[in-house]
User: Fold these one by one.
Assistant:
Number 1:
Amino acid sequence: MKLSYKLLVALCSSLALTSCMEVLDKTDLSSTSGTLIFKDSTLTQLNLDYIYDQNLPAPIGSLGPEPTGISGLSDESYADSKLLQGSLLINEVADFGTKLDATNNYGKLRVINMFLSDVNGGTLPQFTKNKLRAQAQFFRAWRYFDLVRLYGGVPLVLSPQAAVGVEAKQLDFLPRNSTAECFAQIVSDLDSAIASVPGRWSAATDWGRITKGTAAALKGRVLLYAASPQFNPTDDQTKWQTSYTANKQAYDLLTTNGYGLHASFDQLWFQEVNNPEAVFITGYNTATGDQTKKNNGYDNSTRPSYAGTGGGSNQPSWEMVKAFPMLDGKKAGESTKYTYSDQLFYKNRDPRFDKTIAYNGATWPLNGNTAYKLWTYFVGGKTVESKATNTGFYARKAINPTAAAGDVQYSGTDWIEIRFAEVMLNLAESAVGINQLDEAYTQLKAIRKRAGIEAGTDGLYGLKANMSRAELFSAILYERQIEFAFEGKRFWDLRRWKLIEKTLNGTRRTGVTINLKTTGVPADFATNRDNVSLDQAYTDYFTIAFKQLDTKYDIAWKPEYYFFAIPQTAIDNNPKLIQNNTWGGAFDPLK
């Protein structure tokens, strides 16, 4: 994707609008209303591109009330967090946007609402207005979805609010809308987007803009949340039907417009324009010091520090490593064809394992070296790495193998927030919700076939035959854990299914330390290790020790965290805001 901030700055420059950025950076853009900007399609597009730049999601990201990276809030990785300690207090929940701040949710919503109003007041053709407004409506839906999945119902602000006092505080004296009203508004905005944006954009420079399929896929995700136990504890079938209808619409719109699974599970991250799996993306650019270009940051922060200039975050836990199935699709220890052992944990695994997890002795092309092998073992209590991985592993998904170490900080790999694979699994889960179990099998088998899992004599790719509704729900969540590892999905899946206590509470996540034996190891092992059979190395030369990563506490997630508290600062500013009933208030986030 080559638009947004890059396009905005480039056009400002080409049009010699020296104050363009200053105008667009204002929270209150009302001073531009009715002027040349919204009578000119290019200048209006600049404003829209600013909205893209403000609202496109960052790779993985962090949680609203907790700065910890999302992967560290589940069994996927490790991070110390008050959420997992069970010690989060109301006053420690981040402000959700009652002050004048362009970076919080309501600050961004204000910019979107002003754009929608100003475009309406402009003189562009109605068809053009509709297409521009539809993209902004998509991002309004995106922002409200972010709020609703955190808190439940929030105040719906659908037009620019007048300034109050010295600063604009657009939430003054507005009560919370019900959760149902918020979901309805999100769906309404997304339906408008579906109606007015193209199924595909014709120009390569428009790659990454919102399409009908993007809006439909987000609508499907939103309504899947609404049908999940977090919002649907009574298993209301009408919510599952609504979710199914939306996800089937997304699937059909996308396939009609040429979307589908990419041929390669790992290489899908490195094809940009016309990538069939990229439904909703954040585009980045490779650059060195050019302020008009934005780098994704994920690659540099995730790979080993010595393979870039940062590095080492998003490290897989042993629980994540062991979760991957075997080559026949059966879970470790359940396969009758492939024997699993902790000592040889890497053998005969689902092919996604080697494309997601980097482990001691793995061949991992990095920095243009296609034969590079990663070594993380310890000798005499000291790591052979310049800086040891805390868990014993690294995440290798979406890490560019060809970038030179000095260039990794400038990585321009696009981030795919919604892949076609997610649309398939959202459809599968919704189908299970309405007892269309065969359709769920169809989607699961397609995902596993692309992964490279063996079909088996029954053609089920390791899936159990004739699963019940409950078993299929579990199978889909398991598939999502593997397919979307380190894509920021696992925490949200556990939360919307209210499974965090069952999965994590009372446990401590685990890492491994791989030690080189003190006897029986060839003297030239350090210099010849790349040529040693990995099976021999693990069998004869290495020992594996396990360690607890959560050293301070057993995980103790609390039920009230399924809907976070409205920040006390927000309530202090607006007495009409009512706290959630799980935090001492009277607001029911389930209504």
Number 2:
Amino acid sequence: MSTRKMFIAGMMLVSASALAQMKYPQTKKIDHVDYYHGTQVADPYRWLEDDNSEETKAWVKAQNEVSFGYLNQIPLREEFKKRIEALSNYEKISAPSRKGEWYYFYKNSGLQNQSVLYRQKGLNGKPELVIDPNTLSKEGTTRLTVFSLDKKGKYACVGLSLSGSDWQTYYVRDMETGNNLADELSWVKVSGVAWKGNGFFYSRYPEPGKGKELSTKNENHQVWFHTVGTPQSKDKLIYEDPKNPQRFHTVSTSDDERFAFLTISDRGKGLDGNALWIMDAAKKETKFKPVVAEPGKYDFSMVDNDGDILILETNEGAPNKKIVRVDPAHPEKVNWKTIVAEKPEPLQGVNTVGKHLFLNYSKDVTSRVISYDYNGKELGSVRLPGLGNAGGFGGEKEDKFTFYTYSSFNFPPTIYRYDLATNTSTVFQKPTLAFDPTDYTVVQKFYPSKDGTQVPMFIVSKKGIEMNGKNPTILYGYGGFNISSTPAFSASLIPWLEKGGIYVVANLRGGSEYGEKWHEAGMKLKKQNVFDDFIAGAEYLIREKYTSPTYLAASGRSNGGLLVGAAINQRPDLFAAALPGVGVMDMLRFQKFTIGWNWVADYGSSDNAEEFKALYAYSPLHNIKAMNYPATMVFTSDHDDRVVPAHSFKYAATLQEKNTAAKPMIIRIDTNSGHGSSNTAKLIELTADSYAFVLFNMGK
């Protein structure tokens, strides 16, 4: 027997042994039934929703003992971790942003748990430390979520989050002394920082009940104004709407601080758009007045003001979005002037610098950037290095140049300096890597979904790999919330590719890849299209001999975790392994926790009879059957207060109960972490465990 065959046989023996010894913790069932529009739905694991109960904590501990006991037996686990660490250990620097004579930027020396904020005088000055979040907690799980300077750069609002929670605490730092003032603002969530004079607007919720901080439904979002140097108790309540408790209220201000913009959304009622109100300091206004009075179907976003005139981005009458000029003295829509009309490609973002508008369009999921003046005259297209993803192009009105970052799957994030007058780019900063990205190839393919819709996917692999149906392949998808899955570089992907693996990103309906029509085609009653797109992608990869069901894994996080759960319920035969992460698994109760009601605009709600029928038909939790499932590693975190871990708890317990295959159904529950990994070390560990679990269960 060859050495390789002996190695594979040895791993299979370990796998069989591990399975023979694996005993899942006994999960008690209770007699709980809900009634939805005349339909009786059992919920035997409802008790797992109480994440603070001693019983749930004991269950979590017992599940982790089984899961990590299983993972510890996989020979490749430690190898993957060390290789990911080695390849990720390179200096990462963000594009700089200017405030006065200072340039601010983030840097990670390689494997730091959190990136560190620095500043320097001029582009050639000596960097000085501003904030190092790694020093703020023992495990490095305190994140710097906000750093917002006032107009003069004298003060900064600093936002911190603990252990991956979405809750933030805001502080005020004196940038001359480098010390924090006594200001401390609690229970901040879904908030910006909008400076105006000697203070700023921010958004928060009332303090939740003790012990319920990570699960209580968040309602009555309020806008407050904080004056620098005063306690939070002295803050002024600017806006609230207790009659509509599930609305979001956020404020931004124009660069000259003349206008304050209040954005109001009501996604809990299924409305995907927003209202827009303004306050004009030049007119000494103290209350907001409407430009768009009520949230509805369409989006309205402030871009900038040109003196008295507002420049807005909207998708009303333009699913791919357009740019308009609005006179707030005559805000009726009949008076709006379109300055950049809708294009065939969706507009993904707008930024401003040097009184230029930079519009970032998506052409088959890759960036196209065009600049305009404030009257809509085209000034030129930015020549990008290739077919990838570009972001940046921000700055002050007096700036003559700006920065942007460009990357792709095999092109590491590289910072370019862009000169506005000459429309030219030069490399400003590029990373030094321990591998050659050109050893890997990226191709884009289009495949037909169930209804004939052409869906794009990116396929990443090592050059020269043989398409023989035996390549271990991870198919990743998201497909929701108008979010586009764009090409993105990750050094942690390389160890998978080095093992002969293929990585695929499918650009499913529900995202923003082709504008609002693409988004709407994967929403609410049409959500099944997303699963059909993913399943068709798996079938395409098998048909074209990239892989086969023995070597194909499904992967997704959050809304993508929902996707994986639905896909393996509907087509378990297509996959050898599944990685549903922090997923929305209980489609009948998601709106009951934290800000879950915010997702009603995309999913619909079980409170609606027609939408309940659609949700119940695909809900991952409610469609688990007694059948053979792929090897599945569910993963979640104890501090996930966006998609509460109860989703994954109930889902994993049901999988363990009903799966009939001799394959593992484990749940990996991270601690002191949230909806995303709370530090670099935890992310590396999760990635290594995912690769090892998948290859192990493919017999590789």
